[in-house]
């Protein structure tokens, strides 16, 4: 019997302060996972950098690594941790989101999804078993179940049929994961499996699906298919309705979310795990986060600004460089400018989560949340 342990240390309303013990270390939650889709964070950020800025979990994508360099290659090289030189937890997304994002390049059938590679056009088939096999080859800490992420604007009929198929796929994922973890040559035989709740903005479909997958006794549960077109209010409403129907003694993961404000709102609603490309994507375009809101360092007003991006910030950019210098690098298209902005943004997110954990530990999360949200509206 493998050891797994998710322990809630503190609660405040629905908000949870917990830890998840894994084979690659203990994850303190709430946590923001830094997104390295193809086994690297875009913006020339190394795994040594990730440690320096306080990253607990790195997230990579099953579909992208299957396409290039190939999960068979990564397996031969000892798994994803060894390949990218990272000894902390890794979560791999299942490839299910690509069912949504590559809509023009795929066909969905009961057995799985037929893709055309976005790299070279070759035909790819991925179903629940294939996704589990790829993620087992990658040997990530946490594998995500293979699902379809329907559009938030899809019809009720389409969403219901899609969710029913996702439930059937989840049962297949669980069976295949158990088989793979029993094999003697599997790199990580303690790989965890998280299921994914879907249902677009139909709360009754979401709740029924949450109830169904909760009975499968998985290692954790995600809420997927949000932040894909619906309003923030719709997203918060779905979380209010759905999270209470997921097991409270298991981690809850809100996929692909979001802004700092989104994270604070979702923590209040009981979410433990987050990921989003915003900090790295915005950083590559010179948009940086501060406690007072977001700055665009391309703006002329920073041309002679000798202050760091944020006073008192401990990130590598703020410890050494001025807004004026980073703006110059961005304008000159020097990669260092992009790199420094990405490092700052990821540090900001990681540090935000640390502050959230401290506030929960000290029983003052609601006050902290109100202060942070008020602060984000003030620009410098």
TrEMBL record:
The keyword Glycosyltransferase applies. It catalyses: 7-aminomethyl-7-carbaguanine + guanosine(34) in tRNA = 7-aminomethyl-7-carbaguanosine(34) in tRNA + guanine. Substrate binds at residues 93-97, 147, 198, 225. Zn(2+) binds at residues 313, 315, 318, 344. Gene3D superfamilies: Queuine tRNA-ribosyltransferase-like (3.20.20.105). GO terms for molecular function: metal ion binding; tRNA-guanosine(34) queuine transglycosylase activity. Residues 15-375 form the tRNA-guanine(15) transglycosylase-like domain. GO terms for biological process: tRNA queuosine(34) biosynthetic process. Its EC number is 2.4.2.29. The keyword Metal-binding applies. Residues 256-262 are annotated as: RNA binding. The active site is at 93 (proton acceptor), 275 (nucleophile). Binds 1 zinc ion per subunit. Pathway: tRNA modification; tRNA-queuosine biosynthesis. Its cofactor is Zn(2+). GO terms for cellular component: cytosol. It comes from the Bacteria. InterPro entries: ArchSynthase1/Queuine_TRR, TGT, TGT-like_sf, tRNA_ribo_trans-like. Keywords: Glycosyltransferase, Metal-binding, Queuosine biosynthesis, Transferase, tRNA processing, Zinc. It holds the Pfam family TGT. Catalyzes the base-exchange of a guanine (G) residue with the queuine precursor 7-aminomethyl-7-deazaguanine (PreQ1) at position 34 (anticodon wobble position) in tRNAs with GU(N) anticodons (tRNA-Asp, -Asn, -His and -Tyr). Catalysis occurs through a double-displacement mechanism. The nucleophile active site attacks the C1' of nucleotide 34 to detach the guanine base from the RNA, forming a covalent enzyme-RNA intermediate. The proton acceptor active site deprotonates the incoming PreQ1, allowing a nucleophilic attack on the C1' of the ribose to form the product. NCBIfam families: Q_tRNA_tgt, tgt_general. Belongs to the queuine tRNA-ribosyltransferase family. PANTHER family: QUEUINE TRNA-RIBOSYLTRANSFERASE (PTHR46499:SF1). Homodimer. Within each dimer, one monomer is responsible for RNA recognition and catalysis, while the other monomer binds to the replacement base PreQ1. This is Queuine tRNA-ribosyltransferase. The lineage of its organism: Bacteria, Bacillati, Bacillota, Clostridia, Lachnospirales. The gene is tgt.
């Amino acid at each position: 019997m493998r050891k797994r342990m998710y322990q809630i240390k503190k609660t405040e309303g629905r908000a949870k302060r917990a830890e998840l013990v894994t084979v690659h270390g203990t994850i303190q939650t709430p946590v923001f996972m830094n997104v390295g889709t193809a086994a690297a964070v875009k913006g020339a950020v190394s795994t040594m950098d990730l440690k320096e800025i306080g990253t607990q979990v790195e997230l990579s994508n099953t579909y992208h690594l299957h396409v290039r360099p190939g999960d068979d290659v990564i397996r031969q090289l000892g798994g994803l941790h060894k390949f990218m030189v990272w000894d902390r937890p890794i979560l791999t997304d299942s490839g299910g989101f690509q069912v949504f994002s590559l809509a023009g390049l795929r066909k969905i059938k009961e057995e799985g999804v037929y893709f055309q590679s976005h790299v070279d056009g070759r035909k790819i088939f991925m179903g629940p078993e294939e996704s589990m096999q790829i993620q087992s080859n990658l040997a990530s800490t946490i594998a995500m179940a293979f699902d379809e992420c329907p559009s938030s604007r899809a019809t009720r009929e389409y969403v219901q049929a899609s969710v029913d198929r996702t439930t059937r796929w989840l049962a297949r994922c669980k069976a295949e994961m158990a088989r793979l973890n029993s094999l003697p040559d599997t790199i990580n035989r303690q790989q965890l499996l998280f299921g994914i709740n879907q249902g677009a903005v139909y709360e009754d479909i979401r709740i029924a699906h949450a109830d169904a997958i909760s009975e499968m006794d998985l290692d954790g549960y995600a809420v997927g298919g949000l932040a894909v077109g619906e309003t923030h209010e719709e997203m918060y409403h779905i979380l209010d309705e759905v999270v209470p129907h997921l097991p409270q003694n298991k981690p809850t993961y809100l996929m692909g979310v979001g802004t700092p404000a989104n994270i604070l709102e979702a923590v209040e609603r009981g979410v433990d795990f987050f990921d989003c490309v915003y900090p790295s994507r915005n950083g590559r375009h010179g948009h940086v986060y501060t406690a007072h809101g977001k700055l665009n360092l391309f703006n002329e007003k920073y041309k002679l600004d000798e202050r760091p991006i944020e006073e008192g910030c401990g990130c590598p950019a703020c410890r050494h460089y001025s807004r004026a210098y980073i703006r110059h690098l961005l304008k000159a298209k020097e990669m260092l400018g992009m790199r420094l902005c990405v490092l700052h943004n990821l540090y900001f997110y990681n540090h935000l989560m640390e502050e959230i954990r401290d506030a929960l530990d000290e029983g003052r999360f609601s006050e902290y949340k109100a202060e942070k949200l008020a602060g984000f509206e003030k620009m410098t």
